[in-house]
Design goal:
The complex is a heterodimer of chains A (350) and B (305). Chain A is mainly α and 350 residues long. Chain A is built from 13 helices and four strands. Chain B is built from eleven helices and four strands. A two-stranded antiparallel ribbon of chain B has the order 1-4. In chain B, a hairpin with a 5-residue loop joins strand 2 and strand 3. The N and C termini of chain B lie far apart (54 Å). Classes of the chains: A mainly alpha (350), B mainly alpha (305). Chains A and B meet through helix 5, helix 10 and helix 12 of A and helix 3, helix 4, helix 9 and helix 11 of B.
């Protein structure tokens, strides 16, 4: 009982913080304190990346299924929902206009999110059921292949813009992104802590042993794949309606790699690790963009142009020096708790 | 019929390039169980090495067989050295860690090479000099084959025979087969596994670089990101043929190349637009993997409990 009150309390504080941040992003600011557009975009992309990273972490980190096609599911959610809002968004807004503009547009976004999640989950089932028979690297290759096929098929659908890109209305703002990032984190955390989560972790540790213990491995693998895909779809919906423009170039396999990099840097099988990874991978290239030019003799070295090289180097160095990622399978909360406990025991020997 | 023969020739030309690159993927996977994502970029590095050699040694101005051979062998040597360096400094330190770690290292390596080349050479494409005189030969009917296509066939067949000889007739080849069979037993038998792995990377990288220079003769536009798609398709070819299997890689490469051009040529008649070109490789891959998870020529290994 107390723990659920605590959870609700934390959630309420988070949403209030998102609300304040969102207000700061508007043109008037929050009581005159504002965030510029560039920083606002970074915040929004951190939120979207947190959804992507935690949902992929359910598949890769907790179930141990090697999926490298997450961007494909994101694309499905993004395009399906964008097609919906472009076609029906205005009409729905019009017919619910009596509720006020904010409510009507929120309603459109919520329907879009449901559509994106369902379509992406279905796609996850379609991809997952046949391919989860494959193990390890083969599964990785097939998911990569499916994601590329999804992207190329979308590229060839003229109704969603084809190669020229797709103009979408900006129904999503930072507040929505924050709320859905929170929902994703809470839902996936609860799944991981439930019976299902135990089953998933047992599959990760040893699939054969899990099967021998009576875990229906296929069912659990497919379910985790579908749930992960559904949240990737949600991230896609938010991306589409925040970015206001979709291009299939945003969903190339480099995007899938980026999401994997987030969970690997943070620590596979750690919720807070995935969140930390999402923040680092979003911010690091942007921080490196601000590297100064250094002039030696007459030649000027623009370190900012090297930012992606440096990013790749940091990635390789992380893998060599700390292959389990920053947090491994532990959670940041666990560290804090241990720290607090050690603090209380005066002997310091426990 | 003429166009079919023409499509097939063009398809097999691309296919032999895929096959050359696929060999590197398959050898490395066979030994380390590592998908070397940076291998496609080595193909690009090979093309750039050839470009620099050809322009700095003056072969660009007048086509000659000597210039071509020097460029080809030179870029193969450079790529082999780079491949070995990558193995030594990036892959060897993470070899003992989990699969995910090595895979991420490979992805990081791929990004590193790509963006380093974008930084050095800028993203704009460069045109590769014609190293040999090029002319079209008309075959029966109206199908034509260019001398650069013949060159691609000849050089890739030669290199594949050479590789087959190295693997089955030399001592190092025997060691490679032993390491790929069981790396720990090979070590116990006194094989210097580190050297064998480094040699495998060198061999694979040299073949990829040859693929790069040959492609540049056929299609003289080179750019730093050219290795991504080609590398991915070559990798698909390796998996299709049965990863770890050398004839399989060649078969897979040729199949993917042929399927791709046939889709461009004939897809519209059965309702597949030619823009699906890049999807074909993956579609074939998925179908084959679902039916025969070990690939066309691969053998299925039973999992031990």
């Amino acid at each position: 009982m107390t723990s659920s009150i605590k959870t609700f309390g934390i959630a309420a504080v988070c949403i209030a913080a998102f609300y304040v941040l969102n207000a700061m992003m508007s043109s008037t600011g929050f009581f005159g304190v504002g965030i510029d557009d560039y920083q606002a975009r970074l915040f929004a992309f951190i939120g979207i990346n947190i959804i992507l990273a935690t949902s992929l972490n359910l598949i890769n980190g907790f179930t141990g299924q090697f999926s490298i096609g997450h961007a494909g599911f994101m694309a499905v959610g993004a395009y399906a929902s964008a097609f919906f809002t472009v076609t029906y968004g205005k009409a729905i807004e019009g017919s619910f206009g009596f509720l006020g503009e904010t409510v009507a547009s929120s309603l459109v976004l919520l329907i879009a999110i449901v559509i994106g999640a369902i379509v992406a989950a279905l796609m996850g089932l379609i991809v997952g059921i046949p391919s989860l028979r494959l193990k390890g690297d083969y599964l990785a290759i097939v998911t990569l292949g499916f994601a590329e096929i999804i992207r190329i098929v979308i590229l060839n659908i003229d109704a969603v813009g084809g190669a020229t890109g797709y103009q979408v209305s900006g129904y999503a703002n930072f507040l929505w992104i924050g709320i859905f990032a929170l929902i994703t984190v809470v839902v996936i955390r609860n799944i991981v802590r439930s019976d299902m989560g135990r089953a998933l972790i047992s599959i990760r540790e040893d699939e054969l042993a899990a099967e021998a213990m009576g875990v229906n491995t296929t069912r659990y693998k497919v379910t985790s794949f579908a749930i992960g895909s559904a949240f990737a779809g949600v991230a896609g919906v938010l991306f589409a309606h925040y970015n206001k423009f979709l291009s299939t170039n945003d969903f190339q396999f480099i995007k899938s790699f980026e999401i994997i990099i987030m969970i690997v840097i943070g620590g596979m099988g750690s919720m807070t690790g995935a969140i930390l990874g999402a923040i680092i991978v979003t911010l690091l290239p942007e921080l490196l963009r601000q590297l100064p030019d250094i002039q030696i003799g007459s030649t000027v070295f623009k370190f900012a142009d090297l930012r992606l090289v440096i990013f790749a180097l940091i990635l390789i160095m992380t893998m060599i020096l700390r292959p389990q990622g920053i947090l491994g399978t532990s959670e940041l909360g666990g560290f804090l708790k241990r720290f607090r406990r050690a603090d209380k025991s005066t002997g310091g020997l426990s | 019929m003429d166009t079919f023969v023409q499509q097939l020739i063009n398809g097999l030309t691309i296919g032999s390039i895929y096959a050359l690159i696929a060999l590197g993927y398959t050898m490395v996977y066979g030994i380390l169980r590592l998908i070397n994502f940076a291998h496609g970029d080595i193909y690009m590095v090979g093309a750039y090495a050839g470009f620099i050699l050809a322009t700095s040694l003056g072969f660009a101005s007048e086509p000659s067989a000597f210039g071509f051979v020097v460029t080809l062998v030179g870029s193969m040597a450079i790529a082999a050295a780079i491949g070995m360096a990558i193995e030594r400094f990036a892959y060897r330190p993470v070899r003992k860690f989990s699969k995910m770690t090595t895979l991420i290292t490979a992805i990081g390596m791929s990004l590193l090479i790509e963006y380093l080349f974008v930084f050095i050479f800028s993203g704009t494409p460069r045109s590769f000099p014609q190293l040999l005189p090029n002319s079209n030969i008309t075959l029966f009917g109206n199908a034509t084959i260019s001398t650069s296509q013949i060159l691609i066939f000849a050089v890739s067949i030669l290199l594949m025979i050479l590789l087959q000889w190295i693997i089955f007739k030399t001592k190092i080849g025997k060691a490679m087969r032993a390491v790929s069979f069981n790396i720990n037993s090979a070590k116990l038998m006194g094989i210097n596994t580190d050297f064998v792995i480094a040699f495998t990377f060198a061999l694979g990288s040299a073949l990829a670089a040859a693929g790069g220079v040959l492609t540049a003769q056929y299609n003289p536009k080179i750019e730093p990101l050219m290795g991504i798609m080609t590398g991915l398709k070559a990798f698909v070819a390796a998996v299709l043929g049965g990863i770890g299997n050398i004839p399989g890689a060649v078969l897979g490469g040729l199949l993917i190349g042929a399927a791709e051009t046939l889709v461009v040529g004939y897809g519209s008649t059965i309702g597949i637009p030619s823009t699906y070109r890049d999807a074909v490789a993956f579609a074939i891959l998925i179908i084959v993997l679902l039916v025969r998870p070990a690939g066309l020529l691969g053998s299925n290994v039973q999992e031990k409990v």
